[in-house]
């Protein structure tokens, strides 16, 4: 198969979808790999390293899309990339369709095959391609939140861990999944007083067992969320419903419960956000203020630490990408239930229920669609 790796062009997205080591693995299996020049530069991987691993370097993004059968990316295509996508071309990347109607319609129109990292799902319901970036984002949420609590950043002027004789900051984490767990661990490590809320009692039991003493677990409901955020200095939104929009746990009216300078970090913003007043921002302009509350809503947080993120992402995606290349996407998705759940759009049809429901569009069962495509 011919693999294409374009340079990411989303604002301040510094990651790359494939490392030179990944190129070498594809070459070992007999595939051709084309990498756009300077695609890995911001992640610390030179063109020379890709060439040495066996990749062919192409000068433009247009050239990569033109030649490739499978495009491997980090983030969803942006508007300038839509015309470059060919019918039946396989795109393997994060899509988050439920948060972007234009992207959804564009991929339907282009009749591309869209296999989304974020909905590849194991039998235990874990999301193996979302986990590494969720780990990075969860940890970064505290790192960024601590920075924006500083007074020059319009925060309260509170040191996250306090000092002897001065109490630490109060951190509230909404959601006890991968992002929430990593955020709570980092905040606790800083010495903050942490409250983590989740709707699953078994998950809260687990977190109670593994978290340090400065982390308190609380059942998530409307009353408890309001109570927690009214005392918080830093709130982390870490709620995920795979492939669907995140629910709004904090509404506009609830901002008045918080004191001026409180910082909100909505890690779920690329899936619609779990804080109503949050909308996607960039690393260039990461925050905005509503009702004296600082909102940090960067949709590609791991892009700020591209070396770590690229290695972590490739470690997770490469085994799946090799299956797609070795077998072709139809056979790979037919034989592998995890990859099958990653199919969101193919042949101009939506194959993932959460995406169809987000935009009130027709939905075709992926099993039926695959049978029709394989035996067509």
TrEMBL record:
One of its GO terms (biological process) is L-alanine catabolic process. Residues 4-137 form the Alanine dehydrogenase/pyridine nucleotide transhydrogenase N-terminal domain. The keyword Phosphoprotein does not apply. The active site is at 96 (proton donor/acceptor), 270 (proton donor/acceptor). InterPro entries: Ala_DH (IPR008141), AlaDH/PNT_N (IPR007886), AlaDH/PNT_NAD(H)-bd (IPR007698), NAD(P)-bd_dom_sf (IPR036291). It catalyses: L-alanine + NAD(+) + H2O = pyruvate + NH4(+) + NADH + H(+). This is Alanine dehydrogenase.
